Fold this protein.
Amino acid sequence: MSSSKYSSIHYNSYLQIDKITSAQTLRSDEVGTHAHDEMLFIITHQVYELWFKQINFEIKAIANDFSAQTVNEKNVGIAVARLGRIIEIMKLLIQQLGVMETMTPLDFLDFRNYLFPASGFQSFQFREMEVMLGLKENRRTTYNDKPYHCVFATDKKEKLENLESSKSLFDLIEDWLERTPFLDFGEFNFVAEYQNAVTNMLAREQEAILNTDILSAESKQMRLSMLGDTNTYFANIMNESKHNELIKEGKLQLSYKATLAALFIHLYRDEPILHVPFQLLSKLVEIDDHITTWRYRHAQMVMRMLGKKIGTGGSSGHEYLAMTAAKHHIFADFHNVSTLLIPRSDLPVLPESFRRNLGFYFSAMNA
Ligand code: HEM
């Protein structure tokens, strides 16, 4: 006799297949005018919701690990793997729109009227995902001047409000970056060294523009003025009080200290200890990219299905969705770190004693 503490289980009951496969009720059948494509419409949305559930499950786990006062270093690697999983799911979510698009606008019209006022706008899990990642209410595009959560019943609205007031993944990563110990390391002051390197790099670029005989005087002037703008950009971002002003004006989100840490990680990512943090930051940017791609693809699909018709949820349809694609970036400041990068050849050389701290124990011992 088996001594196992658990009973055997059948595929069907483990996965509750009957429950899932009996959850497709066609409104068109209820009304008595069967519309063939409504099955695809329902299943596609349901599959999305299942994947949203998995994505949110992963985000919650990462957020939980990063809520610790000191993040266990092992958990940074685990977060990278989980973010990688989210990215793979998001790629599927983008591809899946192709399946939806096998339904033509005319097929959609066979049952669209029966859906009113249901809309993807009412997807609670999609909102959870946005909020947990870090999309703040004041950065959202609204329609009809109403907050996005007005479409939910009280319990769901409260859940979203609670989520809004807890730390998002963006906030937790920002805290983690702010705690980075590398920015002022005894003899090495990163900001001072970096600013020096930027000044030298820009001076070289200026000299190259002035000395070239390929450009006309007019285009030289134009390029010099653009270089001036870059200079101002570097200066503003690197100046703590200016940086804070930009945050107040809503032009930046990531704190000064966290921006410096993210920059440091990007610049010195070849140092072994920074590999995993670099991957973490890259994955966040990738997630932002994929959500944006999904928003654009969905908006394009809506344009194709509805043209200029308004949505069943009452928005302007394509126009509203295209605006969310342009505006609802969550990790934009992590993207912008690329603006601050300088070539490896211009990088300030790290003092040897410091560099050893960025290697693995074994290589430091043998250095
Ligand atoms: C024929 C297919 C589809 C059409 C015509 C369509 C149309 C729309 C429209 C017009 C909106 C704007 C809100 C409104 O006024 O209703 C919207 C929002 C939304 N839809 Fe779809 N949709 C389709 C498929 C899907 C699918 C397969 C999903 C997957 C879950 C989805 C998820 C969403 C989400 C999450 C929003 C809210 C976006 C935001 O506010 O940022 N939609 N949809």
Summary: The chain has a mean pLDDT of 92. The chain has 18 helices and two strands. The chain has one domain: 32-183+253-366.
